[in-house]
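Co-fold these.
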Amino acid sequence: METIVSVKPFLAVLVSILAVPLIVASRNPNLRETWTFIAAGLKFLIIASMVPLLLSGSQIEYTIATVIPGVPIKLRVDPFGILFALVSSFLWIITSVYSIGYMRGLNEHSQTRYFSFFALSLSAAVGVAFSANLFTLFLFYEMLSFSTYPLVTHHQDMEARSSGRKYLLYIVGSSIGLVLPSMLLIYNLTGTLEFTSNGFMQGAGSPAVITILLMALIFGFAKAAVMPFHSWLPAAMVAPTPVSALLHAVAVVKVGVFCIFRIITGVFGANLLTSLNLDTLVCIIASFTMIAASLIALTQDNLKRRLAFSTIGQLSYIILGAALLTPKGLTGGMLHLATHAFGKITLFFCAGAIFVATGAKNISEMVGIGKRMPVTMAAFFIGSLSVIGLPPLGGFLSKWNLILGSLQAHRLSMLFVILLSSLLNAAYFLPIVYKAFFCTSEESLFENKIKEASYWCVIPLVITAIGSIAFFFYPEPFFSLANMAAENFLSARSVAAGASLLKP
Amino acid sequence: MNQHLPAIIVTVPLLSAFVITAAGWLNKKLCFPIAIAALGVSLYCSISLLISVASGKIIIYNLGGWAPPWGISYTVDPLNCLVLVAVASVAFINIIATKKNVEEEYPDKIGAFYTLYVLFATGLIGIVITGDAFNLYVLLEIAALTGYALLGMGSRRAPLASLNYIFLGTIGACFYLLGVGYLYIATGSLNMKDLSAILPAIYHSKTILFAFIICLTGLFIKMALFPMHAWLPNAYTYASSPATSLIAPLTTKVMVYAMLRITLDVFTPQYSFGTIGISHSIVWIAIIAIIMGSLMALAQRGLKKMLSYIIVAEVGYMVGGLWLGNRAGITGSILHIINDAAMTLCLFLAVGNIIYKTKTDSFDDLKGLLKKMPLTMGAFILGGLSIIGVPPTCGFFSKWYLISGGLAAGHYAFVAALLFSSLVNVVLFFRIIEIGFFEPFKEHVSGHHECITDQIAGNRIMIEEAPAGMVIPLVIVAGFLIFLGLMTGNIVTSIIQFAIPAGIS
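Predicted complex below.
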């Protein structure tokens, strides 16, 4: 594999940080939003320009600084990283459009602060995607934790404060309490923190130590919301909806699962985990979260909270994909990172549009809303089908691969977990859509007159809904990137394990 | 000229003290320029010395040409050149940042204040640069006496707090002097280099053990290691801001340096960490210091007192790191001297600005401050993040080495204490951020279609920053926290690794 040294990944991280002073200095809101768009556009273009290189099988590296001897702040772009960066930077552009509609539609305060910290968060998310070692990953992970705090607590009221506390307690508490010591222990045991495609922990410690480290890292990256470290996510729904949409359906939570994916593949490695049977343990943890979160989602009446619990469940699909440690499983997990992003962001956009147009937050207040906001609810329908995993939507591709992956791994039980969880997904999404469109005029809470939210709100959700459909028909370059990454991660599976994989 | 830098760095501020006093009689406006010029010379010297000793060179300068062990020699080596720069730059930046504050606090005593200020800096620089155990005591007293006076010139309760400090500080200094006396009786020498050559032959002697322990105890009192910290919080809290932001970042750190010098250089590490078998107990004391310091900080409702208790915890970091006795731990300890000086300076300067504008540092009066003083609070938050240990601020990196040291030594309780303290620091600083950010609570404004009130509520608080002369230095110091963090690699590879005796792995 060819390695190219290029400053591009660093620029991709930097461009939104550099936009912050410009955003702050702009007196005129239109100029301020222009900077956001320029930064978002540039970020996406820089990232997209690296895709052809990666598809040709190269890697891009850039060392920012050698801060601790032997542990540099270093970026490396590999297929998995760029897949995530591509999704989040593309959705940032769309979310920025939506933010304007939402924030101005509601006349929110402190919009400058909002757009500044949004830009910072995106820098951190892309930084995580491109991290070449655990230390760099931790650095950007922490940057993300602190730069999203003002967004979560945007309303600055009592509720925001208590949610902010919960957010910090879970996210920062677990990263300092679990990730930091684990990282140092790994460094002490192995003398390196650099991700390799097959892990570097082989033989570094006793099985007990490896198990403890793996668990500390899986729960420590609490942004992935693995139960019981999940309850910050429903609490964080007090944030303005665009924040919930991009950060708490895409950037922040996906950073969490991305980190777990990285440590499973890049730190521990497939061989080590299978030899200690730890992949089974991770599968069990993930499937518990999948089922439990879906069951809780059924009971939520607040739409955003239902979406939040749905997110918790869907995140664990990705972790499950990583833990299957088979080519299809890994591919499915990575694809789910992308398809769920498109699906869930659509759903959040819809929730926000409904709130802007009608003020309704609860599902019980949305009976008959399909007649008033047909476009929004149609998009909602598409988004939910994608998250459930039905063709012809992107979500089908990822779930299909996950199912194949569990067959490859000879884990029939996981197949049932995925199917059961998908049924539950349908059970908590479809009634919303049904009630919105099919109700008698007595039941309907809305007049029969079409009145959507502003175009700024509607266009983004239409784009992401179409994106979900397009993903099914044109899954490139995501599909190839995920395949390449999966091949990389499994390239050194021991012969015995490899042989069993080839069995039908 | 260049070969005299080790002398100039001390003599210029020392002599300038007299000039400032005289100038104070003539025209008060002259005091500040003279003080700043003298400290500027010291800063320049310290940086030139740092450059010339980087990568392991040692400069020995005999005062007046008298060779040791009879004359006093000044030594600049990798162990102290960094501390030298830290002391000189903190003194230099602080004098600029607090100019306005000093003029308002002591309109009649400007001459006295700046005289004491430069003398204090002289004392600390001297402690760091001297290669003579007794001379260290003399300079310790210079720094201490001026420190008592500076701290005493504060609020109504300051003189009493300072008196308390005098008692304990004097006891500490006497302990140290007693220890040096024993060493002199046993060896006939006061020069550190000389001592380190003579001592190994008589390590079995009980006198030497007693001298070592009593020296250390004296230094522990002076650096406010728990439970000998009682003098510190009140003395720092009731003093005026310009004095606190000079003394708080430096005194404890310089004392930690003196401890490093004694344990690593005058005595051998094998003796300090091995033969006498006290290192384990001292690490445990450090652990208790970290935990108690953090907990007591948690109980405070005023910024200065909270920061004072954080210093108590941070002293535990440095003491514990050294007595782990391994390379990573000692690296962390030395690194933390500089980093902690920078972080504490940043935080105390920010608090100085807050007090300047609001006349109080009580938590209850911080409401809306994030809007009122965005730059000051921004710097304060950055300092807080550094104390918490968030990369890439410098606080993270010293914590990195300290935790590595703890893991390498298998001292998991120390690691746990560091993590505990980090988590407590998160609570400490976000409690303040919460007050500044959320309060005063507005009407519920996030709801639907009730947003016009919100715009008004948002604009009601206007920006009221401290004067530019106070804010700009603060922002520079805050930015420096990140710069220092990113420079960690260079600092460790080109300086600190030469400061640690070769035998330590």
